[in-house]
Amino acid sequence: MSWNTLLAFVEHLHPEKVLALLPEYTVQAQALDFEAASSAHLGGVALAGTPGWTVLLSPLDEPFPDEGFLTRTSADGQVLLLTLAGTGGVYGFSLFAGGEHVREVVYADFELAEEQGAPLPEEPAESEHQ
Hints:
Blueprint: E1 4-11, H1 15-20, H2 34-37, E2 46-50, E3 53-59, H3 67-73, E4 78-85, E5 90-97, E6 100-108, E7 111-116, H4 126-129
């Protein structure tokens, strides 16, 4: 089995505030484990809260908040968006901070396919990728 999901980690915003920025979604309160929340059968976006962060999970075939949402929610913190598309061999991340899209890295079939912004201190050196 392969993951085909998007995860957005939103810093410093309570889940209720994140929901207020997502008027196109309806809320169904229910407890889900990670497998159910990241499943293609979810039929929507799952939302979870943890101290200091709100996490959104969405199957890749489900519409996900656009870049405008990501820049708005990162105005007072950071938003880390992870793309895990195992069936297509694509994975990567985007980082939004201070209302700006500051970094994006996407790999397809283990090759760098897209890169935007300066490398982050947390990223391994290029020689570590090989």
